[in-house]
Structures are given as C-alpha cells and as structure tokens.
Write a structure and sequence with these properties.
The chain is α+β, with helices and mostly antiparallel strands. It has two helices and 20 strands. The relative contact order is 0.20.
Length: about 260
C-alpha cells in the first residue's frame, strides 16, 4: 500500500511539472518568436519478483515475468522549433526568418547569443540592436541621414541617403543554424545560448545552405497553439487527478486493513 502511494506521488509530481510547462507556453502565446516546450517522461525502475526464462517447477522456462514499477519522472524539456506564423508590421527594422536559422547577437557582458526575435531597434548611434540592447553580429550601422532602409531576402542591408534615390549597401546580415537546436539553452529575453549538445553555430547567408530567408516588415509570432495547450492542460489535470485517486484508494485500503482488528 505504501508503495502505491509513493508511486502515485511520482505521477503527481511529474504532472505538476507538465502543468508548469504548459502554463509557461500559454504565458508566451504573444511573445515574438517564442518556441514552445514539451516535457518528456520516463518510467522509473522496476522491482522484479519473477524473471522470464527462469525454470519453473515443471521444468519449463517461465513465459512471463512479475514486476512492478515505481512510477514516472520527467527527463527532458523538448523545445519545438517549428515555424511560427508571420505577421506583417510594415516596420523596416522588423525581420522574420522563414525557415531554419537564428540571428547572432553580442551580449552586454561579452559572448554570443542567438535569437529569432527580429524586432530590431536603432541606438542613438544608429546601430541595429535588440529591444534589450544586444547588438547584431555582424554589426550594422544606419547613417543618420538615411531616409529609407531595405533588407533583401538574402540579408543585404541598404539605405537611401538624403535626396539620392539609389540605395547604398551598408552591411550584410548573417544568420546561423545548429545541427541540434533543441540543445540550446534558453536565457530568457528571447535569446538562446550555445551548448555542447547544440553543436557549433554554422553561419551563412540567409537563403543559402539550408538557412531560411529574411522577410522585412514581418515578425514571427509564437508557435504556441492555444487549443493544443488547452487539450494538454486538461489531459495533465486528469492524469494528476487519477494519481491522487490512487493515493486515496491506497489510504482507504490501509484504513480497512486497520479496522479488521476491531
């Protein structure tokens, strides 16, 4: 009876984490370029009291085993890098990656990070940066007398200066990809950091070598599907409920056993 209560408790803890993850997904339904996560579970170890293949009293090999498991545990959070929908904004500094890839930015404390959030801004010096002040790498600076900015699908940044009608190139955007993007660590602020599991960043020109192309004036929205998350939430709630009932049933059975002596 005690084993059943502890086993069911592992299920409740696992589903609690599942609900926490679903709540995080739903909280970021309007976060630019957010990628939803999914908790993955494994069954815990087993106690075997009868091993299959062992000889029985009749001399035959036992055709089946007798084992009991000790519940479930969460083992990973799989981040889903599926494409989010594109929303037109008309802002020339809004860039959406259609396909595989990340923008590379330089962190304030040094080092690199990666993001698909293309809602860029200009600093007082004209440098292109994220909303949190992380500059693009390679650095792009827009002249102060620029009257228009254009970004081609392959990342060439051009500006129109003053009364000149011919665009002048001011830089080339690069994006990077990873052989295992699920291995990236999320730092918050819509940025990710490379890890040994993700592999090295593979830079390239947008639209080439398997990298996605850029869409100026668009933003990629969150890939969270509210209906799917609500179904997952209900499923997690039911799983939590049935585990709690297993604990209640175990407690009732223990109570009945104790009352046999009266």
């Amino acid at each position: 009876m005690i084993r059943a209560m502890r086993t069911a408790a592992t299920g409740m803890k696992a589903q609690q984490l599942n609900v926490d993850n679903i709540a995080h997904n739903l909280a970021n339904v309007n976060t630019t370029s957010f990628k939803k996560g999914r908790v993955e579970f494994q069954d815990l170890f087993y106690q075997q009291t009868k091993v299959p293949g062992n000889p029985t009293a009749t001399g035959e090999d036992s055709p089946a085993n007798l084992e009991i498991g000790y519940g479930a545990t969460p083992v990973s959070t799989q981040r889903m890098f599926t494409q989010g929908e594109m929303v037109q904004t008309g802002n020339p500094l809004d860039l959406a990656i259609e396909g595989d890839g990340f923008f590379r930015v330089v962190l304030a404390q040094g080092g690199e990070a990666y993001t698909r959030d293309g809602s860029f801004k200009l600093s007082a010096e004209g440098r292109v940066m994220t909303s949190d002040g992380y500059t693009l790498d390679p650095d792009i600076t827009i002249p102060e007398d620029a009257t228009a900015i254009s970004v081609s699908s392959d990342g060439l940044v051009s500006v129109t200066l003053g009364s000149d009608t011919t665009p002048q190139p001011v830089g080339q955007l690069e994006i990077v990809r990873f052989i295992n993007p699920a291995g990236l660590t999320a730092l918050g602020q819509n940025i990710f950091q490379q890890t040994p599991a993700s592999g090295e960043a593979l830079p390239g020109t947008p639209g080439a070598d398997g990298l996605g192309q850029l869409n100026q004036g668009y933003l990629e929205v969150s890939n969270v599907d509210i209906v799917e998350e609500m179904i997952a939430l209900i499923s997690a709630q039911r799983a939590y409920e049935v585990n709690s009932k297993a604990i209640k049933t175990s407690e009732d059975m223990m109570s009945m056993a104790n009352n046999l002596t009266r």
